[in-house]
Specification:
- The structure holds two protein chains of two kinds.
- Chain A contains eleven helices and 14 strands.
- Chain A is α+β, with helices and mostly antiparallel strands.
- Chain A is globular, with a radius of gyration of 27 Å.
- In chain B, strand 16 and strand 17 form a beta hairpin.
- Chain B has a single domain (30-230), classed as Cupredoxins -  blue copper proteins (Immunoglobulin-like, Sandwich).
- Helix content of chain B is 11%, strand content 47%.
- Classes of the chains: A alpha+beta, B mainly beta.
């Protein structure tokens, strides 16, 4: 019985940040590690550690080829990572890749498998790791971020990472890793996808010693002053939030006046974005195992006439239909049930099925907004007499789109939106520049959106009335109490 | 005071002259021979042209990846000719790679182990990214304000040099264990001087056509001609 409280204490300690990744290096047993490797790792990394496991073909980025002894994430100035560097990746995984966190393995097993993985590189890892020496930390401040931006421009980070850091720079399409596979520059506005972690020290370390085996070079000796590494770090941190703070409910704001259809209008900047994660469509062929679009930020508002959706998503290239070049039009769609009914019944999330249709509000680059009724991804029929219109802008690797539609529909194929009702909504997106079209898309399952109740003057009346009544009740109680005394 | 200064200068000059005169020269400076190599390729040149989508004011709007450059009389340019197995002291000369017009200049060069000066004459970002096994690979950014960097290639091997910002940029540095090498010019010719007399195998390396060797005998004070035809 003592074991259980102990386990709880241990679990709490772990949760509180006694992170196992900071554990002191242990000498692993490569022989014991082999068994763990063959069970857990070989599927992707291959039995010979060459990164050619059966699953490798489906993965982007490709699994690591351990035989080269080249590791992206190092805290060292030379090629060889420390054991802690490797242990950390095994323990925490690599965000934005297929490498999961192997916390399911015991610490001992992780050290053992680490020892085994190192044997694949043989002599190539025999050099002693040399810790990189970062310049003295400069805390973030407005001045530091400003200097960081200057340096970002001077050292031309935008060549790969893009002017606004969305990974859409002009060299993007040319980049290859050490093995000749195409590799995408990091989207610096999505820090939670950073392969080696998003803390300031981690960002500064990547800047200082580069990301081995990728085009990302070392900048430690290539900035004007050593502390510029920290100014750059602070600037990169200022480019986006630390986490996507995914939404579960999209609130549609009630507005009395007109709603602007300019995607860059101040009005939209004031609304809080509801970030919705997207996944690759892997249910019907052809599937999309490596979706290009992973997030859409949704804002929405309505007035007595119309409901207006504002969608923001990153896409490195603006592309139109050019099937000969395997390029397709970028597109996005909102999906609703054709009629909003109470109760949990909803059509099949993947564009409906034979018995239940869905309503699609779709925008396509070059074609604009259209409405359609779908009974599955292969059965999409345009709805005649389109009532929706759209307005999109594309700047520095980002689309911003406004779609306006009447609030009420008299037609059975299109939903009518009513305040205070939970409306099922799903999203689909296509990066045509990455070859996405048809079922090769990003999808979500059903989410809900809710039109907030129109604001009335009652909120100025009811609370004071309640307050007065409460006070009166208290006075009565006091009086009775005094009477008894 | 002036006299003392004059004396110091005089001593320094004499010392300098003596030092230069006594500098240990390459092996066989007096007794060595010369190899004149003529490298040819019967096939067609392979030059890939591509449009440039950035930095066009520095890189031009079109660039070429020169995979096989064939000059007059089938002369093959950019082939490294070296005397396999020769022994000799390293040259003190630093090798230089210039990044100019979004190209590595020279495209191919050979050097003895030591320092290499990497210049950026373009006023834009390049990154020097080397592919090597004996030497540590380098991937260092060289922004516009970093005009010169010095790196070390200490072990003999052939190193590929690329720039990820401009993916067409490609250079090669052959690090040789001895100073008896040359890189063919536009006519496919190169001269290797002061080679100690003896029988050697001359090795030719080309970035896409691979390696070939040919036997040659070097005699003191004479020029040995060697013709090598590269094949696919």
């Amino acid at each position: 019985m003592i074991a259980r409280p102990l386990a709880v204490v241990a679990a709490v300690a772990l949760a509180l940040g006694a992170a196992p990744s900071r554990a002191a290096a242990q000498a692993g047993d490569a022989t014991a590690g082999k068994a763990v490797y063959e069970r857990r790792c070989a599927g992707c990394h291959g039995e010979k550690g060459d990164g050619k496991g059966p699953a490798a073909d489906l993965l982007v980025p490709k699994p690591r080829d351990f035989t080269m002894g080249l590791y992206k994430i190092r805290t060292t100035a030379n090629k060889v990572p420390t054991d802690q560097d490797l242990f950390r990746i095994i323990t925490d995984g690599m965000p934005g890749t297929s490498m999961p966190a192997w916390a399911v393995l015991t610490e001992r097993e992780r050290w053992n498998v680490l020892a085994y993985i190192k044997t694949f590189a043989g002599e190539k890892l025999k050099e002693a790791p040399k810790k990189v020496e970062l310049p003295k930390d400069v805390p973030s401040s407005e001045a530091s971020i400003k200097r960081g931006k200057e340096m970002f421009e001077a050292i031309e980070c935008h060549k790969c990472h893009g002017t606004d850091g969305r990974g859409d720079g002009p060299s993007r399409a040319e980049l290859k890793d050490e093995w000749g596979n195409p590799i995408a520059p990091a989207n610096l506005t999505k820090r939670w996808t950073f392969r080696g972690g998003a803390s300031r020290t981690e960002i500064a370390t990547r800047l200082a010693n580069g990301v081995l085996g990728t085009p990302m070079p070392a900048f430690l000796d290539s900035v004007e002053k050593p502390e510029d590494i920290w100014h750059l770090t602070n600037f990169i941190q200022s480019l986006g939030p630390d986490s996507p703070h995914y939404a579960t409910l999209v609130t549609v704001t009630a507005v009395t006046g007109a709603i602007p259809d300019d995607p860059n209008a101040e009005f939209w900047k004031k609304l809080t974005p509801n970030n919705i994660p997207l996944m690759g469509q892997v249910i019907v062929d052809p599937r999309n195992f490596n979706p290009a679009i992973d997030l859409v930020a949704v804002r929405a508002a309505y007035n007595d006439q119309a409901i207006v959706f504002h969608l923001t998503w990153d896409d490195p290239t603006q592309s139109a239909d050019e099937p000969a070049k395997k390029l397709f039009a970028d597109a996005i769609a909102l999906q609703f049930p054709p009629q909003i009914t109470a109760g949990p019944e909803r059509p099949y999330f993947l564009m409906g099925d034979g018995s239940d249709a869905v309503y699609l509000l779709r925008w396509e680059n070059g074609k604009g907004v259209s409405e359609a009724s779908a009974n599955g991804p292969g059965k999409i029929a345009a709805i005649a007499g389109g009532e929706a219109r759209g307005n999109a802008v594309f700047t520095n690797g980002q689309y911003r789109l406004v779609i306006t539609r009447p609030l009420v529909s008299k037609d059975a194929t299109r939903p009518t939106f009513t305040p205070a009702v939970f409306v099922p909504v799903a999203f689909q997106a296509w990066d045509g520049g990455a070859g996405e079209t048809g079922t090769r898309m990003s999808v979500t399952s059903w989410y809900y959106l809710r039109l907030e109740e129109p604001q009335s003057n009652r909120r100025f009346v009811i609370p004071p009335v309640v307050a007065i009544l409460t006070l009166a009740a208290m006075l009565v109680v006091v009086r009775i109490a005094k009477g008894r005394a | 005071m002036r006299r003392a200064l004059t004396a110091v200068v005089a001593v320094a000059l004499v010392a300098g002259v003596v030092f230069v005169a006594h500098r240990p020269d390459q092996a066989g400076a007096q007794g060595g021979g010369t190899i004149e190599a003529a490298v040819t390729f019967a096939g067609a040149p392979v030059i890939e042209k591509l449009k440039v989508n950035k930095d066009t004011e520095k890189c031009g709007t079109e660039t070429a990846i020169e995979k096989v450059v064939v000059g007059p009389n089938k002369g093959l340019a950019y082939a490294v000719v070296s005397v396999a197995g020769a022994k000799g002291a390293a040259t003190a000369k630093k090798a230089t790679i210039d990044q100019h017009g979004c190209k590595f200049v020279p495209h191919v060069q050979a050097m003895t182990p030591g320092e290499v000066e990497i210049k950026n004459s373009d006023d834009i970002l390049h990154n020097i990214h080397t592919y090597s096994t004996a030497n540590a690979s380098i991937n260092k950014a060289q922004p516009k304000f970093k005009k010169v960097m010095t790196e070390k290639f200490e072990k003999p091997e052939i190193i590929k040099v690329t720039c990820d910002v401009h993916s067409w940029m490609l250079g090669w540095v052959a690090v040789m264990p001895h100073p008896f090498f040359g890189v063919t010019d536009a006519n496919g010719a190169t001269r290797i001087e002061n080679v100690p007399p003896g029988k050697y195998s001359v090795e030719v390396w080309h970035e896409t056509l691979g390696k070939q060797t040919k036997e040659v005998e070097v005699k003191a004070g004479q020029t040995a001609k060697v013709a090598i035809e590269m094949k696919k």
